[in-house]
Design goal:
8 helices, globular, single chain, about 160 residues, mainly alpha
Length: about 160
């Protein structure tokens, strides 16, 4: 199954209870095939920049791409982390254009998921990425990212 097909099935299941059994079947099939799950994770992470560039919500791709991080085989973790870091940084840059008074809630999830996964797999990398994102924050009166970042960090700490 492709990442696009998987996300479509996920969206359908969320919107229509009649589609949930088919989606659960997909999830069960993936749980029996770690190699297929790993392949899907890499496709999802590769898809995130395209979603961002086309102004589509990357939340589902972040969700599944980080939820299944334990399916990544040890030799592939560096590539996984590089793709995830790129996705987090690209997402962070994309939210720069949000209005200052925006409700931060919907924008926190992808950032929190990505940072939590990075932190779980590579603490020094997490610290480096977090410090780089903090340095990119502009004046809080004109750049909402500082509030979103801090909320994502505290949200991630609550999940641990």
């Amino acid at each position: 199954m492709s990442a696009t097909g998987f996300l479509e099935a996920s969206y359908k299941a969320a919107a229509n209870s009649a589609a949930r059994p088919a989606f659960k079947e997909i999830l069960q099939e993936l749980s029996r095939s770690p190699a297929a799950k790993q392949k899907l994770v890499f496709e999802l992470l590769t898809m995130i920049p395209r979603l961002i560039d086309s102004r589509q919500d990357p939340s589902e791709a972040f969700l599944w791409g980080t939820r299944w991080r334990r399916s990544i085989e040890a030799p592939n973790i560096p590539e996984y982390l590089a793709l995830l870091e790129d996705a987090v940084v690209r997402y962070f840059e994309a939210i720069r254009s949000l209005p200052v008074g925006v409700d931060i809630h919907p924008w926190v999830l992808p950032l929190g998921l990505g940072l939590t996964a990075i932190g779980e797999l590579d603490t020094p990398r997490y610290t480096r990425v977090l410090n780089a994102l903090r340095q990119r924050c502009g004046n809080p009166a004109m750049d909402p990212r500082k509030r979103i970042l801090e909320a994502a960090i505290s949200d991630g700490e609550e999940r641990e």
